[in-house]
Amino acid sequence: MKVSFIHPQSTIEWNWNSALLIPVFENILPVECSLLTEEQELIVQALIDRDLFHGKENEVLFVPFTNTLFAGTLLLGLGPQDKIHSEKVRRTSAKIVECGKANKIKEWICDWTKISIDYIPPLIEGIMLCQYTFEQYKSPDNLQKDKKTSLVQLTFIVSKEQDISHLQKQSQQTVTICNTVSMIRSLICSPANELTPQSFADFAQDICQQTQIRTYILNKKSLEEKGLNSILAVGKGSKNEPLLLVLEYNISSQEEKPLSLIGKGVTFDTGGICLKPREDMQDMRYDMAGAGVVLGTIYALAELKADVSVVGIIPLVENMPGGSALLPGDIIKTYSGKTVEVLNTDAEGRLILADAITYAQKNYSPQRIVDMATLTGGCIIALGHFSAGLLSNNDDLTEELVRAGQETGERLWTLPLWEDYDKLIQSDFADIANIGPKAEASTIVGGVFLKQFVENNIPWAHIDIAGTAWGVKHIPYWDNKYPTGFGVRLLTHWTLKNYKRNTG
Ligand code: BES
Ligand code: MN
Ligand code: ZN
């Protein structure tokens, strides 16, 4: 999608596929816009007088014009002016897309002279996120027909004191991040017969080639040599061998402490020998969403030429039952040296993340570690689909992430990690067990387990995206059948805001 900016005096090249968009706050009427003729303003006013539009949140009114060079005007209600915030704008964008499709609009000229420029990025985000589709496996005859009318251009008219080149740069960043989110949504959506640990790594290496990201892979043999037994154990049951993918962005000197992002990459989670029920098992192809989000975040940072040092550690496995699969009761000696009794082969995410955390610490001395994972069904029970779970050993990191969540609309809610919970993973036969008793506090138990592998109190956070990675309803820009890519915007924003070394 193209985004451009102009000042009010500039000439606009209207055409039949373009329309005017006017954001309106509740009851701040009449609607005035220098681009409307007197006659058009009267038409709009007449409709308002007839109580057809008040500027309420999510209220829209499209007024088609026949005697002009453009298709019409969309009044976009944003609710009361003092209650406006970016998430409202993001959500309202779905209405613009809807109206655009109904009226075959390809370009919106947005009168942004009476509303803060802060709301431009969320508008772009909302529009791009809700236009996403995944149709690469559909034959041409079965493609959604409305795809042809997808929006191609947004032009913002901003007041003359605004710096257009700055706005242009900022909105280009937003577009880059959203394009990355779309790419990652498609990766996450890919079926597991196509997306194996190896093909995930191939895809990552392929897209990173034109960037400043350096990648390498530890294959099964190197995992064995180094002793990343926990990743190997989970991968044992599958003919698609496990591997560890590492992404290095601006990793130069030894002294520099990078951020470390770790993502759960289970390309399919059958549950292993503790087999899952068949209902909705197809969703378990999304069990690599955390891995996708980490790849997407680092890719976006590289595209934006962010001046930060980041290492991504992505363990990739397929969790399968079979003659050589991991068994309940097995004891693994993890890469850290700690032993783990596997009481449930379906609690596999924490096993592969444990070795990934250890790998980060042994090889990169990270200043912060954040892991993303579709770790527990219990997280959906606790928080539903409107927020991801956040568990951390550090209050500053917690605060940074929660704030980034509010600013991006990818919200986080903290759960406790009090030492009391450590008792839940006691094992009779090994250092720790991989599950707690029954379903008790299962999301917390996941965090408690991972915490055992974090050394020297390095600030670390675990984000459980089981509820937000897909299946999100009632949020307009995500209201579709596709995975959300939840976390890419959050982590990219968090990194840029808190860790960039200079402005760029
Ligand atoms: N990938 C699942 C978690 C999951 C389930 C995410 C449903 C999204 C929707 C994970 O590997 C898993 O199976 N977790 C178990 C842990 C339990 C055995 C302690 C769970 O949540 O049931
Ligand atoms: Mn599982
Ligand atoms: Zn899983």
Describe the fold and architecture.
This protein has 504 residues and is α/β, with parallel strands linked by helices. The protein has two domains: 2-162, Leucine Aminopeptidase, subunit E, domain 1 (3-Layer(aba) Sandwich), CATH 3.40.220.10; 190-498, Aminopeptidase, CATH 3.40.630. The protein contains 13 helices and 18 strands. It has helices at residues 38-49, 86-102, 120-130, 164-189, 197-208, 220-226, 229-235, 289-303, 349-364, 377-383, 395-408, 442-451, 488-499, and strands spanning 2-6, 18-24, 60-64, 72-77, 107-111, 153-157, 213-218, 243-249, 259-263, 265-269, 310-319, 331-333, 339-341, 368-373, 388-392, 412-414, 432-433, 460-464. The strands form three sheets. Strands 7, 8, 9, 10, 11, 14, 15, 16 and 18 form a nine-stranded mixed β-sheet that branches. The chain starts with a strand and ends in a 5-residue tail after the last helix. The site of ligand BES has 15 residues, from helix 10. Manganese (II) ion binds at residues 269, 271, 346, 348.
Short key terms for the protein model shown above:
504 residues; alpha/beta; Leucine Aminopeptidase, subunit E, domain 1; Aminopeptidase; 2 domains; 9-stranded mixed sheet; 18 strands; 33% helix; elongated; binds ligand BES; binds manganese (II) ion; binds zinc ion
Overall form: elongated
Which topology of the largest domain does CATH recognise?
Aminopeptidase
Q: Which sheet architecture does the biggest sheet show? A: 9 strands, mixed
Helix content: 25-40%
Instruction: Provide the structure class.
Output: alpha/beta
Please name the CATH architecture of the largest domain. 3-Layer(aba) Sandwich
> Bound compounds, please?
ligand BES, manganese (II) ion, zinc ion
Mean pLDDT: 95
CATH superfamily of the largest domain: Zn peptidases
Strand residues, percent: 15-25%
What is the C-alpha radius of gyration, as a whole number of Å? 25 Å
* Weakly predicted, low-confidence segments: none
Number of structural units classed as domains: 2
- Helix run count: 13
Could you tell me how far the N terminus lies from the C terminus, measured between alpha carbons in angstroms?
Answer: 22 Å
